[in-house]
Amino acid sequence: MAEELPASSVPTATVTADNSSGQTVASVEQTPILVDQASIPAVIQAMTLDEKINLIGGAGAAVSGAAGGTFAIPRLGIPKLTFADGPAGLRFGSTANKSTTGFPIPTALSSSFNKDLMYNVASAMGKETLDYGVDVILGPALNIHRDPRGGRNFEYYSEDPLLSGEMAAQFTKGVQDQGVGVSMKHFAANNQETNRQSVNEIISERALREIYLAGFERVVKEAQPWTVMSSYNSINGPFSAHNSWLLNDVLRSDWGFNGMVMTDWGGSKNNGIAMLKGGNDLSMPSLNAVGKAAVKAAILDGSLKEETLDEAIENILNLVVKSPTFKKLSTVDNSKLNVSTDLAASDAQLSREAAPEGMVLLKNNNKALPFDKGVKKVGIVGNSYTMPSCGFGTPASACTTDNAASKMFLMGTGSAYVTPTQTVQLPEGLKNGGYLPVNTNATGSEMNENLTADDAAYMAQNSDIGVIVIARGSGEGADGNATTFEASAKESDLIEKVSDAYHAVNKKVVVVLNVGAPFNTVSWRDKVDSILLSWQPGMEAGNALTDVLSGKAYPSGKLPETFPIRLEDAPSYANFPSSDGNPNLVKYEEDIYVGYRYYSTFKVKPAYEFGYGLSYTMFDYSDFKLNKDTLSNKIKVSFKVTNTGTNVGKEAPQLYVSAPDGKLEKPAIELKAFGKTRELKPGQKETFNFFIDPKDIASFDESTSSWIVEKGTYQFKIGASSSDIRGTLDFKVDKDIVAEVDNNNGPDVELDRLSKFNQ
Ligand code: BGC
Questions:
Q1: How much is the pTM?
Q2: Which stretches does UniProt call biased (Polar residues) (predicted)?
Q3: Which of 70, 82, 83, 85 to mutate to test the pocket of ligand 1 (most atoms within 8 A of CB)?
Q4: Which domain holds residue 355?
Q5: What residue's CA is closest to ligand 1, atom 6?
Q6: CATH of the domain at 623
Q7: Beta strands in 2-145, from DSSP E residues, in sequence order
Q8: In terms of Cα–Cα distance, which of 591, 626, 536, 633 is closest to 752?
Q9: Based on the domain organization, do 382 and 254 belong to the same domain?
């Protein structure tokens, strides 16, 4: 707790009380009120035990439709704060009818590999948060894409902790620079929806530190999030909200986090004692009466120290004094149903511009994209799909489509679903772009996946190019499975009929993948000319997609996760969503070999590798240089990227390291830095300088609780993807380096860990 102030310097309020004869008189006691951080100790001292216990449980939101809020104590000057969801835009429950800007899903934003873009989108969200009188936005969400079936993968950034952490750090800075807070979630390892409230995940400390916690560590150190949200699941025994190793030892002590920790909604399991001992300050959305009574009894009988409760109170009040509500920077007006007009138009434009940066061009034969000048009529047809889960206040209409070409999924569902200020679907976007969408057969009926060969022939004759939209959506509450990953028989048939019909009249066919997670392309990709992964591109989907198809904009995204050939190829396949036939147990046996770390080390060929993405132009990489050949503290890697094609474009270069095996085994490659060029015209170039220090390339040694770099010869690999390596530079480490020493209370875990040495 912070040092106490002398009573005289603490602002006070005169309180009134009734005297014995019933008259109201000024009390002799002066009550301190909360005015700033320095006043917190005196305010805590003035709080009754019941007030303290009330404050560690949430108590509803001041802004209607928001996810929750804190408890107010007016006599001490403590206002109620409001928290609302939002990794893809500020969210209010759909019944509140409050609209905000719907941005591309977080996976699409991370596909941009563009930190500035992420910062700008987050700044816009932060402004909308302030505009509505909300204090904290419940994001970024940065769990790892452990398995392609993860139901909330769309809400998370990547299978790689560096990309996830960098994107989440930019999200945090962008939001917090507007004077509102974030809640970095779900800490940690909420990598599946199945039994998320009860599943116990067995994970080695090395895999935790290097993969599942590393992104969170980066955000804490680079961007100081105001709050953290603990996850529902257990890790190696205790629930995250009760896990003192996770919250006290790692988050606060090792990383220096000094903000507030809240539970996920219901994540304290109403066990306030375990929560406080675990280092979690606030139970959301509330702590029930039984939970409160238990905390009180434990304090009174001495089994829970009042200082532990006071530490939580101090963390909560530290948040309060930073908040826009407390600083009177925002006001709550529940009749307000739209983002203020000065934000709405520019944020819609930003959403439209952000989407192409995250779109990934997977295939582009014979330059099918962008459209030729002669293209005027665009044949469009899509699949039908209903999401496996549509819970948590998402309107049912957002979870189903009869024809994805006329109704794409704009975003994922659940707590990441926002009520958008406006929506633009593909037919409208094409019209706005000056094209004529053609989506009917000879009898004038709109076509979907049930079209016949004759219908397809009619469309091919009556349009200049064919666009097939294949959609998948998901959301909180359910994971995917084989049917969400594979094209159905009808979808395969749709692709085949349309491709045959257009190719028969020498016209091209493009598939747009409107998905939030990896989708299998291998069975049908040879049939079509181009495949554009649009993800779920936000509320401006139709405009953004038309911009890219037409060449007004261009795709410059790269895959933030591996697209496997078969679901069975995923290293987590056998242990997702459970292990050993026990629905509440998951063994992370793939250990550190998550995503491309696995595919590259074990030489399993994916459909499209991590970091992959084509463009409308070509890029050459050159002038690879190191400022020295031995790493001791910092080493500089430089190279140039030149646009050698004939169109404008942006490229996302990636820096990987290959390390020698020593005491610790190492994956074949690990991403250590990435960048994005500005828009390069043909012939233009950009120089990149990446600085790498020992911690960047260290591995976690469980036997010494430290991050070590072992001596040997290493390689930097600079590439356009994790397999398309354009330049290699050797460097040496002359002697073993201990880059950092961490808390040594780590879990002892029994696990059959995947190793390249026991295959
Ligand atoms: C989700 C969180 C969300 C919270 C509040 C939970 O069900 O897991 O991501 O922030 O609800 O809506």
A1: 0.96
A2: 9-21
A3: 85
A4: 348-560
A5: 265
A6: 2.60.40.10
A7: 12-18, 24-32, 68-69, 82-85, 136-138
A8: 591
A9: no
